[in-house]
Amino acid sequence: MRLLLLIIALGLGIAIIKHLLSAKGTPPARENPPTAMVRCQQCGVHIPEEEAFHEDKLFFCSDEHRSQYRS
């Protein structure tokens, strides 16, 4: 009976050590890099720079707000 418990404990110990070693070798998940946000000159909402409409050095959330700002 003692031998059986010793074998089970040894097997569990080996399994735990293998799990810890394999988890250590995996790199952490990479997140998407942060996106630059800009502020609409007309309404003040923040939007990603690549989605913004721009004129000179000003950014707008829509073409309509860009037109309103011009007039």
Task: Describe the protein's architecture and organization.
This protein is 45% helix and 17% strand. The chain has helices spanning 2-25, 63-70; strands at 37-39, 46-48, 53-55, 58-60. The protein has a domain at 37-70. The longest helix has 24 residues, at 2-25. The chain contains two helices and four strands. The protein starts with a helix and ends with a helix. The protein is α+β, with helices and mostly antiparallel strands and 71 residues long.
Primary descriptors:
single chain, 17% strand, alpha+beta, two-stranded antiparallel sheet, 45% helix, 2 helices, 71 residues
SSE map:
Blueprint: H1 2-25, E1 37-39, E2 46-48, E3 53-55, E4 58-60, H2 63-70
Antiparallel strand pairs: 1-2, 3-4
Structural class: alpha+beta
| Strand content bin | 15-25%
Distance between the termini: 90 Å
Low-confidence stretches: none
Helix percent reads 40-55%
**Discrete helix count:** 2
In total, how many beta strands?
4
Radius of gyration: 29 Å
What coarse outline follows from CA principal-axis ratios? rod-shaped
| Average pLDDT score | 87
Order of helices and strands: HEEEEH
> What is the spatial order of strands in the main beta sheet?
1-2
Let me know the largest β-sheet. Answer: 2 strands, antiparallel
